[in-house]
Amino acid sequence: MTEFVPARTAGIPPPREVLRTVLRRQARPLTIAAVGSCVHQACEALVPLAIGLAVQNAVAGGDLSDALLAVAGVLALFAVLATGGGLAFYLNARSVSREAHRLRSDATARILADPAAGAGRTAGEWASVLTSDATATAQAARARSNVVSGAVGLAVTAAVLLRIDLWLGLGTLLTVPPLILGIDAISPRLEARLRERSQAAGLAAALAAELVRALAPLRAFGGTGEALRRYRAATARCLDADLAAASANAVVAAVGLVSTAFVTVAIAAAAGWMAFNGRIDVGQFVTVVAMASFVGDPVSRIAFGVQQLSAARAGAARIAPLLGPPPLLGTPPRDDAERGHGHAAPTGLDQEPVILENVSAGPIRALTLRLDPGAAVGVVAVDPAAAATLLAILSGRQAPSTGSARLGGRPLHAIARHGLDFRILVVPHQIHLLGRTLTEALQTGRDTDPARMRAALATASAADLPEQLTEAGANLSGGQRQRVAVARALAAEPAVLVLSDPLTALDAVTEDQVAARLIATRRAQGGATVVLTTSPPLLSRCDHVLYIDAQGTVLDAAHAELMSEPGYAAAVLR
After folding, report:
1. GO terms for molecular function, please (predicted)?
2. Residue 267 host element (H or E)
3. Segment 235-259 mean pLDDT
4. Tens digits of per-residue pLDDT, 15-74?
5. 14-328 falls under which CATH superfamily?
6. Rounded Cα distance, 29 and 447, in Å
7. Residue 110 in contact with residue 129, Cβ under 8 Å?
């Protein structure tokens, strides 16, 4: 089972800092909620006192007006405690929901902005982190209210008992705190078990998602039996972790219940002995017994708060790798183009060429490339690793080993992630269509107008496709999905468009039509285009082609000229 990178060694905020941030962001509503919860507990602790006074008044032969006043006092206490408890519940629930949403949004933004953030984890694992762990972390807001209000309830109980009898009050004050400290002492074990449970559940979910995606190939080669064996093993580990967490949870709950029972019985027994010996009267006895039964509520609140804090710390430890380092968080985008809302307005940077000068990285040796507005450049790489390296450099995810890759005089890898995405759009070969309709699938956060979408679909020969899409566009063929991807890229109108094998699933006639329209449209848009492909229809329409042979050597010439190179001809004609 894989482990997370230690927070302090990876520039990641420690779990306690994550929890402090959650509490700090919701400080105002949580403070009001804590006050309301404390009022609820204080009034609930005073109810036995009010009942005891009413009983004492009745036993002493008080008149009807005193009895009615006592009843009104009890009702008033119930009204106040209900109001305080309702307000606290609402504010706590709202704060937890908002913080869970904030954590999910921040973590998702980090994964989308920084590909390295999600490295080493499957989609299923991160789905578990972004759902259950984000919610568990946000529960720290409610946990604090439970602990604080429970402590207030115990304090009021002790004060009432001290008023009735010094030894009863001191006994409560000396007995309950050590029991609460004992509950807190076993919380690290619970925290560890909860973290293991979340991790095991994430791995099981990841495997399930992978098996569902690979169901057809598994059936084809007869691998369903092995797949079932692996899934059973993963779910068995998940069950073991779940049972261990449940056992640890039960221990904490049991300690709280046993502690409550012990304190209740002890206080009631002491009150009975004192009443028998005449140290307290009937009204005081009723108050003490009612107080003894109430003690369980604040103790249970504190025990539950400890459980929530343990779960919150475990969740924070798992989500923390997606909430740092700080430079990627808490720095608001500088403009609409970097924020991802609205179409990126032309800037001076958009008019600057992308220049790769004497770049060497991985299998690439001394590559030089200039992408002026309107230019169209083809790239043919014999080694797939060379194509992947070039994509990484153009997207800013990798810096060259030697040489430079610049936009407007600034290194590509140093430009803010969102700002670069809106100027250099790198479209990988693997296609993902997001949305339930074709219109949604074409939206890239630039508020593309419908006319431009229709034009892009026509350019990609995709105007006749159905508007309604199933999940990930599964109702479209491979060629149709590629045409939608091309249309999406054209509708975005980036300053630089980088495409990786965009037309491999198209028939020869459609490939030639789309290739011609694609290059012509990009020139009309005034944007530079780089196409990593072996498609002759695309390469023949480019201004020039970079051929990267098996040794990483780069040849720069027109497609027709490069056809005299045996290696190039073999690559594009196979």
Report:
1. ATP binding
2. helix 224-276
3. 72
4. 888 888 888 888 898 889 889 888 888 888 777 777 666 666 666 555 667 667 777 877
5. ABC transporter type 1, transmembrane domain (1.20.1560.10)
6. 35
7. no
- With H, G, I as helix, E, B as strand and everything else as coil, classify residue 336: helix
Q: Are strands 554-557 and 544-548 parallel, antiparallel or unpaired?
A: antiparallel
Structure tokens at 11: 């520039």
Rounded Cα gap, residues 549 and 364, in angstroms: 9
* Chain region(s) in the chain for CATH 1.20.1560.10: 14-328
Give the amino acid at 468: Q
130-150 confidence digits (pLDDT tens) = 878 888 888 888 888 888 888
Cα distance between residue 58 and residue 71, in whole Å? 12
**Cα–Cα distance for residue pair 371/377, rounded to 1 Å:** 8
The residue ranking higher by pLDDT, 452 or 248, is 452
Instruction: Residue 458: name the closest of 481, 477, 483 by CA.
Output: 483
Rounded to the nearest 5°, which phi and psi values hold at 60?
-80, 0
How many residues comprise the chain? 574
Compute the Cα dihedral for 214, 131, 422, 341 and give only its sign: positive
Contact 482, 431 (CB under 8 A): yes
Q: Is 555 exposed, middle or buried (0-12, 13-18, 19+ CB in 10 A)?
A: middle
pLDDT in tens, 94-143: 988 898 888 888 888 777 766 666 666 666 667 777 878 888 888 888 88
Distance CA 566, CA 572 (A): 10
Q: Does this model's pTM top 0.85?
A: no
CA terminus-to-terminus distance, the chain: 44
What's the rounded Cα separation, in Å, for the pair 245 and 241? 6
- The architecture that CATH gives domain 348-573 is 3-Layer(aba) Sandwich (3.40)
115/320 Cα distance (integer angstroms)? 16
Please say if the pLDDT value at position 563 is more than 60: yes
Asked if residue 15 lies in contact with residue 22, where contact means CB atoms within 8 angstroms, the answer is no
> Which contiguous run of DSSP H or E holds residue 379?
strand 376-381
**For 520-543, b where at least 16 C-beta lie within 10 A, e where not — what string?**
ebbbebebbbbbbbbbbbbbbbbe
- Taking each continuous run of H as one helix and of E as one strand, the counts in the chain are 23, 10
pLDDT at 161 over 90: no
Question: Does the pLDDT at position 231 exceed 80?
Answer: no
Question: Comparing 530 with 194, which gets the higher pLDDT?
Answer: 530
How many angstroms separate the CA atoms of 192 and 92, rounded? 25
